[in-house]
Specification:
By secondary structure, the chain is mainly α. It is 57% helix and 6% strand. α1 packs across α10, α10 runs parallel beside α11 and α15 runs antiparallel to α16. The protein is elongated and about 65 Å long.
Amino acid sequence: MNAALLAALLASPLGAAEPAVTYETDPRVELLAVVHMLAEPEALARRFPDGPPAYALRARERFAPFSGHPAAARLRALLQPGRRFGPARLLLDCSDPPELAEVRAGDADSPPRSKMDRAFLEDLRDFAVRSRFMRFYGENAAYYSELVLQAQAEAGRGLRPEAVVSYLRGGDAVRRRFLISGLLPWDLAANAGDTRIRSALYGESMFNFDDPGMGPAHEIGHELLAPLARKHREELEAYAGLMPAGCTDTWLGCVMAHVDLSVALRVLAVERGEKEYASALERYRRFPFLPALGERLKDWEREPGASFEGFYPRLVAVFREALFKDAGERARA
């Protein structure tokens, strides 16, 4: 282990630039989760084959009389394939229910609202009032507090976000606000600015915040690394033929996922040792360029005076070398 690098990580020299990560529940997210449960009741059974948790049962019992409300039918229509922005993203630009005032409508980073979007918001307002949703939300405050404690505990077992910032040796203050839900389906989650919706997976961990590839440290790393990928986009796109099946929707997104994860895993190596790094690398075998990126990042760890922006082309070179290697193997076949 590089002792100097470890000392730098532990000291967190960036001071005020250290990221702030918060975990909260949110009535807008829970309102959407409840209406989705009414819109697609079969999805609840698929998600919880052994039976829904107590909170889901309470919600189903409370809101069953409103299963025919127009908000449920409108949500089913909004969930049809082909829509770029989902309903959760729409709600992140609104105030809390029942008002759901469009507080960010028209902002540059706010998606445009269709006539159907506006009709859905109007239906949601009506649903929230008629069902007295906010009363239900208040009655379940203890449950929401438990979710926050669960998220914090998982994050405490994972990588420290400030360790990633220190590993990259720079970066402005980065913040992340996670809105967590035990009921909203994973595929309805959304991002907006520094806000991330994270749904429960109900696996070994509820929210996977202790996973180096899904925790807040990885999110912070993405924020710092994504501009570098976009800066080198033209060259990277030339290697799109390397795109492995099931990576992400786009090749640039796949590159970002590889680089973000490789950085998180090398921070894991510095903080917890190469053995744990090797174990984590094995769990991420579906990312074929991770081993080579990790080896290249070891060069970064041996160059304490460098800037990551200056080093990034050497990560781009990993994909170029992989393309040449692939072409050579094809020629010999």
